[in-house]
Design brief:
Structural class: alpha+beta
CATH topology: Phosphatase 2c, domain 1
Organism: Zostera marina
Protein name: protein-serine/threonine phosphatase
CATH class: Alpha Beta
Mean pLDDT: 77
Number of domains: 1
CATH architecture: 4-Layer Sandwich
Helix content: 40-55%
Number of helices: 8
Keywords: Hydrolase, Protein phosphatase
Shape: globular
Catalytic activity: O-phospho-L-seryl-[protein] + H2O = L-seryl-[protein] + phosphate; O-phospho-L-threonyl-[protein] + H2O = L-threonyl-[protein] + phosphate
GO biological process, one term: regulation of intracellular signal transduction
Length: 369
């Protein structure tokens, strides 16, 4: 009964928002947030949802020099992507605190831990045909720290760096994708057929793979921005076109501009298919543009920059007010800030240790001479 009430509330909220946009003459409900400041630059976020309740969620949490980003693209329902959005950052923080480091492997392990938790939830529901057991979610998560990007991906969302080199803007993909449109992925599935089939429990049969791929990237001087987006966006806009749009237009409203460009292409396809194929609706789209001003020295007083932007249950983008340390958002920000402090101290300690070792080596060599 409680689940039914939650579903009805989500549908009512979504329909009300949709009606307001229709009254304003808009074809789709575009949500966006712009000029969101973080330690080394600004963010622009935009999302449009074709499903109700929305299946796709975005999450950006930043404290000091650490920024966490996640896009969770649900399939056949919202339950799995909602669960991932609510739980994966906890797993990232737990694993990072335990290992006293941030890496792409920590992110990959967090995806695996989140998947295990969701499977336990499905088993506990004891309903093989229920909503929780028949849905899934793609997941792309990243951490930005200093001049590093750590990334883990399971599904077909993608991250691209825009690099301006030799007076030319180029797109640098950071991850591969998991779907059957990928030649490498088709070959991998064909080579490991037995591994992808579990006759005893079809509910937990991965369609492609349940193992995330992890990546680490060191930013270069001419890397200007990062675009992270779900498959619904990349299906209609190429990486080269996306980076050129970001490069050539003002920052304000840039994520919304990207979504609008992709939606216009999707709607042209939809309207051309509709007479013969019914509704060929565009997919949900989520885009995050992070401007890489990491080369700029942070201004005085900016060391304590905290932000949290996320999708609500009805698809709205919410910028949380950081006022309550006891809230889940406040807890995440506190732990992320503590993790950043620990990493900074470890970095200083390692640097001092190297200096001490060099001094000792010089002293030993001088003694030998």
């Amino acid at each position: 009964m409680a689940d039914l009430l939650i579903l009805l509330r989500r549908i009512a909220s979504y329909c009300w928002t949709k009606a307001l946009h229709c009254l304003n003459g808009e074809d789709y409900d575009l949500q966006s947030k712009d000029n969101i400041g973080y330690q080394k630059g600004t963010l622009s976020i935009a999302a449009v949802h074709d499903h109700y309740p929305p299946h796709e969620f975005v999450q950006v949490v930043s404290a000091s020099s650490l920024t966490f980003l996640g896009i969770y693209d649900g399939h056949m329902g919202y339950q799995a992507s909602t669960y991932v959005c609510e739980n994966i950052l906890n797993h990232v923080l737990n694993l990072a605190e335990r290992s006293k480091m941030v890496s792409e492997h920590v992110l990959g392990e967090a995806i695996v831990a989140t998947e295990s938790g969701y499977q336990e939830l499905v088993r506990a529901s004891n309903d093989p045909n229920g909503a929780f057991s028949t849905v899934g979610s793609c997941c792309l998560i990243a951490i930005l720290w200093k001049n590093r990007i750590f990334l883990a991906n399971l599904g077909d969302s993608e991250a691209v760096v825009g690099r301006f080199r030799l007076n030319k803007m180029i797109a640098v993909p950071l991850n591969s994708i998991h779907n059957t449109r990928s030649f490498d992925e088709r070959n991998r599935v064909n080579e490991k057929k037995s591994r992808f089939y579990y006759e005893s429990d079809p509910l937990f049969r991965p369609l492609l793979s349940s193992e995330p791929e992890t990546f680490s990237y060191i930013l270069e001087d001419d890397d200007n921005f990062l675009i992270v987006a779900s498959h619904g966006f990349w299906a209609h806009l190429s990486k080269d076109e996306a980076v050129h749009i970001v490069h050539n237009y003002p920052r304000m409203g840039i994520a919304a501009r990207l979504v609008n460009r992709a939606m216009n292409k999707a709607l042209i396809i939809e309207r051309s298919w509709r007479p013969t194929m019914g509704r060929g609706h565009p997919d949900d789209m989520t885009v995050v543009v992070i401007f890489m001003d990491w080369k700029i020295r942070a201004p005085a007083g900016s060391a304590g920059v905290y932000l949290s932007v996320r999708s609500s249950e009805d698809g709205r983008l919410i910028e949380d007010k950081i006022t309550d340390d006891d809230s889940m958002v406040g807890e995440h920000l506190r732990r992320l800030g503590d993790l950043n402090t620990m990493l900074e101290l470890d970095k200083i300690a390692a640097r001092n240790e190297r200096r001490s070792a060099r001094r000792q080596l010089r002293a030993d060599l001088g003694f030998l001479v």
